[in-house]
Design goal:
The chain is α/β, with parallel strands linked by helices and 411 residues long. The chain has helices at residues 19-23, 28-35, 56-70, 84-94, 106-118, 133-139, 158-170, 194-206, 230-237, 270-283, 289-298, 302-327, 353-362, 392-410; strands spanning 42-43, 101-105, 124-129, 145-152, 155-156, 177-180, 210-214, 247-252, 263-267, 333-334, 342-346, 365-366, 368-369, 382-386.
């Protein structure tokens, strides 16, 4: 009797993927960007730092200095934790030990690693409605259960947050984690008020909920007064002990220096950092040594660079808001950011910005529909606009074109 061999041409490769892999989705923004990459389309979709503001000559000089000073060590493998002088500089900003800082390859890796070490299947993760799409992508493979917290012009609605925390505790399934962007939030551009920051830290500490504070835009304030970070408030609540701080802080040099170096960091209590180190060893061993040394060499020019970026983004945001007021129809609302790279537009109910996008592209303008930023659905009548990399002429032409599209949709 001859055994029958399996026919490899009938092997269902897709069926061999893990359950976690099957939960992954492509970034809606990345997919939209493919559609809008026509050279004659003015795109306000991608949250891209302005390339003409990159400090290219400073980077060139810094690269020469790093190679001269460090030689082959700049091109060699390094420790997982990160370049010590860079970690020490970051730690000193919050008055914590360098051991509480982990360098990561972009904030996106930080979010992925935090998801890996913090989220078990079925854990409740609280997110803003709307929230950063990239965070949802990072957390989803770890199979959380999301709960959306409503937001308004002052950021997270802390009364709603308190109600959700009480309800979940009473049901015996307390939330584990809250993810928030308190400064110039992506996608809305909103900033969490100081009063709400304090309430949020107190509430989450009371209910034993860890907080991930994602702060890539915090340095880019062009109006208004700065507020202490959630991490700083959490540190004060913990009596100054970073190992008792329930707030985890994530930030990046991508929005202040250059995005292509992919240098970012996480600061957290030692048990979290210890597991991040192990998770990162399994991911990429360490963030590129040369890039970390390069960023360290560029730290003296960082204040000047931040000021340059703030002034440019402030002018572009102001121009976009003025053109929206000029061209958008009555009944359309929008946020007024005090910093960062985005503003949020809300259309009258019943309109669908995903359905409107092809019409906008026909008018040579593009945006990001708002619904992908909602973990549990919603926001069909919203959209995100980015002003960071737009020229004055693009803002003028693009807002006029988008206004025409919206007036046609409302007619």
């Amino acid at each position: 009797m001859t055994a029958t061999r399996p026919d490899p041409t009938h092997l269902d490769i897709g069926a061999r993927l893990s359950r976690r892999a099957q939960t992954m989705n492509a970034s809606a923004i990345r997919e939209i960007l493919k559609v809008t990459q026509q050279p004659d389309v003015i795109s306000f979709a991608g949250g891209l730092p302005a390339p003409e503001l990159f400090p290219i000559e400073d980077v060139r000089r810094a690269a020469d200095a790093v190679l001269t000073r460090h030689g082959a060590a700049a091109l060699q493998y390094s420790t997982t934790e990160g370049h010590p002088p860079l970690r020490e500089w970051i730690a000193a900003r919050h008055g914590i030990p360098a051991r509480n800082v982990q360098i990561v390859t972009g904030s996106q890796q930080g979010l992925d690693l935090l998801g890996k070490v913090l989220i078990d299947e079925g854990d409740t993760v609280l997110v803003e409605a709307p929230t950063y799409l990239g965070a949802l992508q990072s957390f989803q493979p770890y199979l959380p259960r999301y709960a959306q917290i409503p937001t308004d012009e002052g950021g997270i609605d802390v009364e709603a947050l308190g109600a959700v925390l009480r309800e979940q505790a009473e049901q015996g399934r307390p939330a584990k984690l809250l993810y928030a962007i308190p400064n110039f939030q992506n996608p809305t551009g909103r900033t969490l008020s100081l009063e709400r920051r304090r309430a949020l830290v107190e509430l989450t500490a009371q209910y034993g909920v860890l907080v991930i504070e994602d702060d890539p835009y915090g340095e880019l304030r062009f109006s208004g007064e700065p507020a202490p970070s959630l991490y700083e408030l959490g540190l004060a609540h913990a009596g100054g002990d970073p190992d008792q701080n329930h707030v985890i802080y994530s930030s990046s040099f991508s929005k202040t220096l250059v995005p292509g170096l992919r240098d970012a960091w996480v600061q957290a209590a030692s048990p979290v950092i210890a597991k991040l180190i192990q998770a990162k060893q399994g991911s990429d061993l360490h963030t590129p040594t040369f890039n970390q040394m390069l960023v360290t060499e560029l730290l003296p020019i960082l204040p000047r660079q931040i000021e340059t970026v703030k002034q440019a983004y402030g002018a572009r945001a102001g121009r976009m808001m003025a053109r929206i007021e000029e061209h958008f129809p009555v009944g359309v609302d929008f946020t007024r950011p005090q910093g960062g790279m985005f503003l949020w537009v809300t259309l009258p109910g019943g309109l669908d910005t995903t359905a409107l996008l092809p019409r906008a592209v026909e008018h040579k303008v593009a945006y990001v529909p708002g619904s992908p930023f909602y973990a549990l659905g919603g926001g069909e009548n919203t959209l995100r606009l980015s002003y960071s990399s737009a020229t004055d002429a693009q803002i003028d032409t693009g807002m006029a074109a988008l206004g025409n599209v919206l007036r046609g949709a409302l007619a």
